[in-house]
Design a protein that fits this description.
Order of helices and strands of chain B: HHHHHEEHHHHHHHHHHHHH
Number of helices of chain B: 18
Structural class of chain A: alpha/beta
Order of helices and strands of chain A: EEEHEEHEHHHHEHEHEEHH
CATH class of the largest domain in chain B: Mainly Alpha
CATH superfamily of the largest domain in chain B: MetI-like
Radius of gyration of chain B: 32 Å
Strand order of the largest sheet of chain A: 6-7-8-3-9-10
Helix content of chain A: 25-40%
Helix content of chain B: over 70%
Largest sheet of chain A: 6 strands, mixed
Oligomer: heterodimer
Number of helices of chain A: 10
Distance between the termini of chain A: 34 Å
Chain lengths: 252, 446
């Protein structure tokens, strides 16, 4: 077992009276890809947003239990939320570049965190776009609107944007669900590549994708963690009947 | 839909859209022709019989024709009731259309005849019966510019507060929303009265008082300076004193100096205690801010048009996809940074639209400025925030009711109305255009 990056202890989340996550405990290892699978509405996205505290903006949300990143309780009072969010980059289901140029999109994070030097910004943007395997495609139109790019390229801009603040963890919420197979393949390659330096948590509806890219897989159903194990084991020999039903498509 | 299709360069018309458009026009043409036929027939019959008989006869004739044409199982009674309804509804919509067309064409045809460069750029002459409307145009422009400078930031900030900071359904946000809606429903004349009472009666008067006090504080200190003619035991030579006051003419208004000189000539300058001067001069100094002025009119108008800005910006902010804000937060941006870098740029079109709608509304409305700054006739353009001004809408009112010869001013009235209409229409259409652009803004090409 590798070193633990995120430790979650009996986490429960509810919106008002409606529970979204029920008493989940799991450990996410450093530099591995952990996939979360499960039917829609089972709390996967809520789970991701709990890790970078994006849920804070919802007035009705109630969170109990503990989330530790590197042994730091992120819901304790003296946590710097913006620092925490910098540490945990997030890629969203729908590619959501800002209506700005590609450069400004990637430079957004460094800029809000105080980097103003033009050359420094350029270096960050270049290296992040390279890491996101997009540099060669956009090198010559860095200052064009990011919205002009294709869906797959836009998603890679978003990945580059997330990388630009030097995160340690990448939270991916169905990063390829709106993309064609070719773009999906590129994103998956990228995930395999990024795994070397980042801890990745990916939510996906695509079983094959989970099987292809992840090291560990968690199956969530109705806010409960049904099974969490090595991906190979989950997909070949799940210990729970429920998991097997879902993976083989007999769910519902 | 139509607007978007006609005006967005990006979305070139695809085939099916063209067909859709033609279909729309088809319906439009059909209705139009139907109405024309209806009117001509009705008109002809109207010549023969009186109105009500004509209508009934017309319905009967049309119904019988339809029954004859269709032949199939048609019930005459149903056809008659059906036709009655069609005619009534189409007649009432026709009333709306015809009024708009009548007003617009009438004013545009008569008004445009009198429009010349001369008319637009010269002062009114001969008791407003001839000459141009230049001061009114400039006054309107000043009014809406100052109004925008005051109103748009306040409206934008309010909208940001409502959408971003106030908790939904909290008591305070409910109160804010209620106030915005109430503000939108208050009659304009009430705003005018409010402006008179609050801006002129309270704020303006306070500023005047403060100015007078500070002025005479200054004079008092000058009295005590060694080079002042009052320095030596108040035994100054009146002539010396007067020339001293005259030397102040760059700093103080003519009235002030004149009043001070008056005091000297009466020989009362020896009792130069401060309160005495202040009271003495407060009565004589003409109010500068405590009177109708451009700034008060503009502020009243800004208040009047505030709901337009707030609602427009609020809509624009709500149209920003929440994922964009989340992306910003997830990159470690604070709330303020997110608002400045994501929310406000995303709402720029809404701010523009709201601003333009406010300007168009403000340019056409007279009641809020009636007591707060507009003047019947001023040969000079407003040169400071405290001066009065002429305005197009009020100018029309003055021409139509206050002129020495109303008949003589009729061409000018039409022309002025024409200018006002062109102005507000252009602004409104610009706003519609920008708004239609906003809808496309976050649509991504995939």
């Amino acid at each position: 077992m590798k070193e633990i990056k995120i430790r979650i202890e009996s986490l429960s989340v509810s919106y008002g009276t409606k529970p979204a996550i029920k008493n989940i405990s799991l450990n996410i290892a450093r530099n591995q890809v952990t996939a979360l699978i499960g039917p829609s509405g089972c709390g996967k996205t809520t789970f991701l947003k709990t890790i970078n505290r994006l849920n804070d903006f919802n007035d009705k949300i109630r969170i109990s239990g503990k989330v530790y990143i590197d042994d730091l309780d992120i819901y304790s009072k003296n946590v710097n939320i913006t620092e925490l969010r910098k540490k945990t980059g997030m890629i969203f289901q729908k590619s959501n570049p800002f209506p700005k140029s590609i450069f400004d999109n990637v430079a957004y994070g460094p800029r809000v965190n105080g980097v103003t030097n033009r050359e420094e910004l350029y270096d960050i943007v270049k290296s992040c776009l390279m890491k996101a395997a997009l540099w060669e495609e956009v090198e010559n139109n860095l200052y064009d609107s990011a919205l002009k790019l294709s869906g797959g390229q836009q998603q890679r801009v978003c990945i580059a944007r997330a990388l630009a603040v030097n995160p340690e963890i990448l939270l991916m919420d169905e990063p390829a669900s709106a993309l064609d197979p070719l773009s999906t393949a590129r994103i998956e390659e990228l995930i395999m590549e990024l795994k070397k330096n980042y801890t990745i948590v990916i939510v996906t509806h695509n079983m094959q994708q989970a099987a292809r890219v992840s090291d560990m897989t968690a199956y969530l159903y109705m806010g409960e963690l049904i099974e969490f194990d090595k991906t190979r084991k989950i997909f070949t020999n799940p210990s729970k009947k429920q998991t097997e039903d879902y993976i083989t498509g007999r769910y519902g | 839909m139509l607007w978007q299709n006609l005006f967005s360069e990006k979305n070139s018309l695809k085939n099916f859209e063209v067909i859709e458009l033609i279909n729309k026009f088809k319906i439009f043409l059909f209705v139009f022709l139907f109405l024309i036929i209806l009117i001509t027939f009705g008109g002809l019959l109207n010549l023969i019989f009186n109105n009500s008989i004509a209508l009934i006869a017309y319905i009967l004739i049309v119904s019988i024709i339809i029954v004859i044409i269709k032949k199939k199982k048609t019930n005459l009674f149903h056809v008659i009731t059906e036709n009655t309804f069609i005619i009534l509804t189409s007649l009432s919509s026709l009333v709306v259309i015809s009024f708009v067309i009548y007003i617009l064409t009438y004013i545009f045809i008569i008004g445009s005849q009198h429009i010349t460069w001369e008319f637009l750029t010269s002062n009114p002459t001969e008791g407003l019966t001839s000459g141009g409307i230049f001061p009114a145009i400039v006054g309107t422009a000043f009014l809406v510019i100052i109004m925008s400078i005051a109103g748009i930031p306040v409206g934008t900030i309010t909208a940001v507060y409502i959408t971003e900071y106030a908790k939904e359904n909290s008591l305070f946000s409910k109160i804010v929303r209620f106030s915005v809606n109430s503000l939108a429903g208050v009659p304009p004349i009430v705003f005018g009265l409010f402006g008179l009472g609050f801006f002129i009666g309270i704020v303006g008067k306070q500023i005047d008082n403060r100015e007078i006090i500070s002025k005479y504080n200054n004079i008092n200190t000058m009295f005590l300076q060694s080079d002042s003619p009052f320095y030596k035991d108040n035994q100054a030579n009146p002539r010396e004193v007067i020339s001293f006051f005259k030397s102040l003419k760059n700093d103080y208004s003519f009235e002030t100096i004149e009043a001070l000189e008056g005091l000297v000539l009466k020989g009362e300058y020896k009792n130069y205690n401060l309160e005495f001067y202040i009271e003495y001069l407060k009565e004589r100094e003409r109010p500068k801010w405590g009177q109708p002025a451009l700034i008060w009119a503009a502020l009243t108008m800004a208040l009047f048009t505030l709901p337009l800005v707030i609602i427009s910006v609020e809509e624009a902010i709500k149209a920003i996809p929440p994922e964009l804000k989340e992306a910003s937060y997830s990159l470690g941006a604070t709330k303020l940074q997110t608002i400045i870098k994501v929310v406000l740029p995303g709402a720029v079109n809404g701010i523009l639209t709201g601003g333009i709608l406010a300007v168009s509304r403000g340019a056409g409305e007279v009641a809020p400025i009636l007591f707060t700054g507009v003047a019947m006739y001023l040969p000079d353009l407003p040169d400071s925030l405290s001066s009065q001004f002429m305005e197009l809408g009020y100018h029309i009112y003055v021409l139509a009711t206050q002129s020495i010869n109303v008949e003589l001013t009729k061409p000018i009235q039409y022309a002025t109305t024409f200018v006002l209409l062109v102005l507000t229409f252009t602004l409104n259409f610009t706003a519609i255009f920008i708004r239609s652009k906003t809808r496309n803004k976050f649509n991504r090409e995939s």
